[in-house]
Amino acid sequence: MLRILLKKKKAMMKSDLIRKFTNLARKERLTYDDLANIFKQVRKNLNLKHDGHRKRLPRILTDQELNSFFKVIEDSPLSHKIMLKLLFYTGLRVSELVNIKNSDIDIKNNKIFINQGKGSKDRYVLFPESFRLVLEAYLSNLNGRQFLFESSRGTKYTPRRIQQLVSGYMKSAGIDATSNRRLGPHILRHQFLTYLTRKGLTDAQIQLISGHSTKKSLEVYQHLSLKDVEKSYQEAWR
Questions:
Q1: Count: domains in the chain
Q2: What does the alpha-carbon distance between residue 167 and residue 162 come to, in Å, rounded to a whole number?
Q3: Same domain, yes or no, for 156 and 181?
Q4: Pair 13, 88 in one domain
Q5: Tens digit of each residue's pLDDT (9 = 90 or more) over 201-236
Q6: Is the four-CA dihedral 156, 171, 64, 56 of positive or negative sign?
Q7: Residue 100: which of 164, 146, 159, 166 has the closest Cα?
Q8: Which domain holds residue 106?
Q9: Rounded CA separation 211/92 (Å)
């Protein structure tokens, strides 16, 4: 009871302080920049630091759910099977996957060129050597199509359509969505990152492979190239 009363009192004090400061700011005709500078100085004087955004850990599939998912897609059309496995093997974002052209596939070197991925950056992603023959066979039957994945109408898949496919196959595998776990393609990206972490790849290696680009990660990129992590990536899938 005492805790509730103290909480209410604190809220009232804050409300009263906001009201008084608002009246003062209006009287002095303070601008947005004036207020920003004032609060900046207040934070500095009180030695207050931003805690940063709290990031929730992504909710991924259990090993059993993931196995069930891949069992279900074994009976799916070949294009769906290739697409869904590629999402897991590469950690690609859906917006990147839909724009892959056949000419972007480097079968010999187990690489795929991603043209203008997230952040308008070009990069390469790797796929396992064990996936090469399946992907090569698929490519040989595309009959001159431009994009790696196209609908029956000859147009490239939309991100929305791939989201529907992933969600549909997961439901067929008996996997349920929860309030903090959405059954979309991005969950396969989380699975990919988790898998490589379990296999012992370093954060720097995973950031390079997955296309993450933060100011902090760029500090290690200057000492790291895709060539350096290729061996570790291929060993992880054996």
A1: 2
A2: 9
A3: yes
A4: no
A5: 887 788 777 776 554 543 444 455 677 788 888 888
A6: positive
A7: 146
A8: 63-236
A9: 8
